[in-house]
């Protein structure tokens, strides 16, 4: 299996940055294993590969429009879910991308640090996006841009759209993993640019 972070960052085997990553073998192995479990499971179950890749493309679009991860996950979404759905998801991500994080602190001593920002409601959505996927995209927006606004009713929205408890956990793990992966790839790309400057 190709190391996905190296592939996204364009790091050749045996290069200086590859050796830097080898200095933290457990972190490297855990990142790769997380990718495989979340995006290439032997038994995807009710959280289909098409849904996983669509959520990934949307999440990458919210985080970084120029990231190699966006093109990678968009291509996977096109292959698995079809071009119309991948394009609809990309349009939603581009429309609702914002600087973050923002949200409201519940703790009185931190409320002065609150930063207002929008949430999304995809009940009115493009035709290829199902109600189930729409709820997942709303969850991705919440966890990616304003996680401190998370409330129990957000989980109820997922449940009402047909998400099981296990699938909600996997969905949340997938979104969190992408935030990590995109930042690592961006950091490695910055190191490469610095070394070549």
From TrEMBL:
It comes from the Bacteria. Coiled coil: none annotated. InterPro entries: AhpD-like (IPR029032), CHP04029_CMD-like (IPR023982). Residues 105-124 are annotated as: Disordered. This is CMD domain protein. It comes from Nesterenkonia flava.
